[in-house]
Amino acid sequence: MTTAKTHRFDTLSLHAGAVPDPTTGARATPIYQSTSFVFPDSDHAAALFNMERAGHVYSRITNPTVAVFEERIAALEGGVGAIGTASGQAALHLAIATLLGAGQHIVASRSLYGGSHNLLDYTLPRFGIETTFVDPRDLAAWRAAIRPGTRLLFGETLGNPGLEVLDIPRVAALAHEHGLPLLVDSTFTTPWLLRPFDHGADLVLHSATKFLSGHGVVIGGAIVDGGTFDWDAPASRGKFPTLTEPYRGFHDMVFSEESTTAAFLLRARREGIRDFGACMAPLTAFQILQGMETLPLRMARHVANARVVASFLATHPFVATVGYPDLPDHPDHELAKRLLPRGSGAVFSFTIKGTRAQGRKLIEALTLFSHLANVGDAKSLVIHPASTTHFRMSVDDLARAGIGEGTIRLSIGLEDPDDLIEDLSRALYVAAKATA
Amino acid sequence: MRLTVAGHETYAYTGARPLVATQPTVVFVHGAAHDHSIWALQSRYVAHHGSNVLAVDLPGHGRSDGAPLASIGAIAAWLVALLDAAGVERAAVVGHSMGALAGLETAARYPARVRKVALLGPSVPMPVSDALLAAAKNDDHVAFELINAWSHSVARQLGGNPVPGMWMTGAALRLMERSRPGVLHTDLAACHAYADGLDAAARVTCPTLVILGERDLMAPARNARALLAALPDVRTVSLRGAGHALMTEQPDAVLDALRTFL
Q1: Burial level of A434, CB count in 10 A (0-12/13-18/19+)?
Q2: A53 vs B63: CB contact, 8 Å cut-off?
């Protein structure tokens, strides 16, 4: 059988969305540091405003450098398009604000990044949007939490910080059974490890600050549309009026009629980015693109190093547990082998056989690992979730999210793994000797 | 808007505008396994610049009910039924690929109903490879992949979409994947079997525009030479670097050619 020639992942990481600059021939994507773009004539201007011609008007809505980033992440995810946002949080808010309004409801995994948990649990209820949090492994709990006002299911590919592997095929099937889309935060895995659309997810969001960039110098995010969800399907009919009914804010456009596959992105750009304005800056897009060029090389090394470090910790006498799905004793090991054949990323947690104070000693004794609130840097990072990223959660909520007081989260970088092990070995010795 | 055409509920995009009796009408006809949204930019422009637009979903495609039509002649007859249902006496017809063949046949058969016709990416005849027909017959996904690879110029397969933030080949693939089982094969078989194209071209009396993609591998420009020779009143626009996916690869150039012509 004839096979279609398409470009492969590593090639797309370098090239997708970018063409040599037509004016200057610049090979690198130029930073179009311009708020706005000159119209050739009045008719052209009006046509751009009314979505009759393609092009750029104003950099809050679209920008040529940001567009390259958007195309590239959409290509790597296998989606139809994307919107670059000011941060991963902005991408989550944009997705929710595009689909939901007051009185509506989200079912979310309870193992989320603390910032996402804040938005869903504390902030959105003030705007009339409520969230029920469920154990991501408990499909019956997902099902039981769906109610008539539910409009979205949301989870992370790898839960934070317990690394629960989201069973995307089953949760997506449940969502679709109810005419609902599944939004997946794929920050920890990147498309190199897992492409959620291939397993049934409908929307994917990224904090591009993390592995996509790799250098830790920029804050940015993206929401990617898989283009598969049918907002007008019988099971979804009437649930998503922002996409299927005339929008007074844009000449009575019905987005699902305007675009069969990208209605969500049209509305998100024509309303959410236009009105809330949490757009990505062109310099940010440029910096993320530099990282994405080496994504396949970096992710392979991240995963290789993480496996070495996790194996070392798993046999250390002062370590109680290591929560890394590549290890056979992780509850999601079999699921990880299926969904994450290249590995379970480079962020994981371990718990020491010690007190909270000894945990603090350990972090302070590390020298190569930087103690800070980020993951996915080329440099190895460490944090104590109970006192930082998840500090607003009660002890009970922490326990339900798989976070103990002695839990320590690592983000394994690209250093020589032997140096990382020596650093951890020394710090564990110091912590174990410290007074409990 | 929704119309009943040949007994089936039919969807036609109008640019969110009502049809105005005093305005000219332009009918946009999509290609195999596509729907009205392939014309998004061009149809919206025309609808907002003094013309009625009927960018149809052919039977069995997109939002339209019914079975896909098995021949180009059947599509031509259906387009006239559409005009009847919409209360339109004469219209300009703009078609892409299979839709271009349908436009050609409609203009030849029903000269009183077609004011002008624009043919984008036509190939007359339009032979479809055995491999593609076989894959489509089995609803094998590889059929969509082959069309996607052959429809976009090599340069555009790496992106650079004029529409910011959209991944062109991904969107094209998803649109085809939306088509119901068997639709692609019916469409391709109709194109493959259409043998009367040059005779039809000789009978066209209205002005004709042919838009060709210089890098079109699905319907190579050389396959339109006989068509161009047969059409009595034709002008040609060749889009440099464009593949078969003319409206998405070069939306503004297509619009400008249509604007001048219509």
Answers
A1: middle
A2: no
Indicate the Cα dihedral angle A70, A72, A77, A78, nearest 10°.
100
Which of B167, B176, B258 to mutate to test binding with chain A, by most A CBs within 10 Å of its CB? B167
Please answer yes or no on whether B167 and A71 come within 8 Å at the CB atom.
yes
- How are strands ordered across the β-sheet holding B91-96? B2-5, B8-13, B52-56, B25-29, B91-96, B114-120, B208-213, B234-239
- Number of A to B CB contacts under 8 A, please give it: 154
The more confident residue out of A407 and A272 is A272
d(CA A409, CA A346): 10
Q: Would the CA dihedral through B61, B64, B66, B72 be positive or negative? A: negative
**Does the distance separating the beta carbons of B167 and A17 come in below 8 Å?**
yes
d(CA A363, CA A356): 11
Place of tokens 């006002």: A149
Number of H helices, E strands in chain B: 11, 8
Round to whole Å and give the CA distance between B96 and B149. Answer: 17
| Contacts B178 to A, Cβ<8 Å | 230, 260-261
Q: What is the pLDDT of residues A22-59, one digit of tens each?
A: 889 999 999 999 999 999 999 999 999 999 999 999 99
What residues pair up with A142 in beta bridges, in sequence order?
none
Q: In terms of Cα–Cα distance, which of A233, A156, A7 is closest to B155?
A: A7
The tokens for B182 are 């068997």
**Are the beta carbons of A4 and B149 separated by less than 8 Å?**
yes
Do the Cβ atoms of B167 and A226 come within 8 Å? Answer: no
Q: Which residues of A touch B51 (CB under 8 A)?
A: none
**Local confidence band at A401 (pLDDT 50, 70, 90 cut-offs):** low
User: pLDDT tens digits for chain B (262 residues)?
Assistant: 999 999 999 999 999 999 999 999 999 999 999 999 999 999 999 999 999 999 999 999 999 999 999 999 999 999 999 999 999 999 999 999 999 999 999 999 999 999 999 999 999 999 999 999 999 999 999 999 999 999 999 999 999 999 999 999 999 999 999 999 999 999 999 999 999 999 999 999 999 999 999 999 999 999 999 999 999 999 999 999 999 999 999 999 999 999 999 9
For A5, name the nearest residue in chain B, comparing CA atoms only.
Answer: B149
Give chain A positions within 8 Å (CB) of B142.
Answer: 1-4
Contact between A319 and A353 under an 8 Å Cβ cutoff? The reply is yes
Report the candidate in A340, A347, A300 with the shortest Cα–Cα distance to residue A322: A347
Residue A381 Cα, gap to closest chain B Cα (Å) = 32
The C-alpha of A213 sits at a distance from chain B's nearest C-alpha, in angstroms, of 18
Residues of B in contact with A50 (CB under 8 A): 44-45, 48
CA-CA distance, A236 to A12, in Å (whole number)?
34
CA proximity to A418, closest of A299, A301, A309: A309
DSSP B61-91: STT--SPPPSSHHHHHHHHHHHHHHHT-S-E
ipTM above 0.85, yes or no: yes
pTM metric for this prediction: 0.96
Q: What is the C-alpha separation between A337 and A334, in angstroms, rounded?
A: 5
Centroid of chain to Cα A271: 22
